[in-house]
Amino acid sequence: MRIALCTIALLGASPAFAQEQTALPPAPAEEVVSSDPRGDFVIVGAALAVLPDYEGSNDYGFTPAPGAIGQVSGYRFLLAGNRLSVDLIRDGFGPTWDIQAGPIGVVNLNRTSRDAIDEPQVALLDERGTAIELGGYVGIGKTGVITSDYDRFSATISYRHDVSGVHSSGIWAPTVSYTTPLSTKALVGLFASAEIVERGYGRTYFSVTPAEAARSGLPVFTAGGGFKNWTLGMAATRSLTGDLTGGLQLVGGVVYRRLGGDFGDSPVTQLGSRDQWLGALGLAYSF
Fold this sequence. Notes:
Blueprint: E1 3-5, H1 9-13, E2 31-33, E3 41-52, E4 60-72, E5 75-80, E6 83-87, E7 97-108, H2 120-123, E8 131-143, E9 152-162, E10 170-181, E11 186-197, H3 199-205, H4 210-216, E12 226-239, E13 247-259, H5 261-265, H6 267-270, E14 275-286
């Protein structure tokens, strides 16, 4: 019997279709245990997500957020809206330690359209292009930690760099996550992460140039790099048909993010809020 410990690829995907930011960290979404030695599985779904208009906004909107996760012959993948990652190191079977490493790609849609921004002064700032951020991640995971042979702890760190010339800088993102089944029909997960960005990121998304200041009425501001935010999140899934081994599941979750440093002090954020909330509720199918 395969037990798919899937909370929310969908929640991990939720920033994908907003003006908001980069990606959420890989929420506890990929945890799978199987009696099949290959551990093959696929989970697909879609959610309705509520997101800030842009990174630092206190205006929110709804957007659809598709997602998919899977494992083929021990290799795991996660497609979470604007984020794709692949674990190129095969996982073991059953309670075990495993090493994680592979490529990661993110499509950053922050402030790519003025029409999606309700705050009138921020809407007068220059639009940003779509940033393509490519890199990789490494980490370690342990299945069978506290509650059963199927709960899982994971710690990773990723680095990605904009190759499209929009902000031409990098983002470091350490993440820890924990998932545990409550029964054969329900599972919950928790995660925490942070983002440390290089100077180009702050200059592109949180600075206000003299020309933008004259147009919008905001003060001139030059943001640097450094610690951008920390994030806490939780997610859950409940089987509607069958159980976690397969069938239709209700998935949902909520994320809190706090901007700090120049990113919290920026006029762009001062018009909005350092406190950022993200949520999603949807359906997934496991097979």
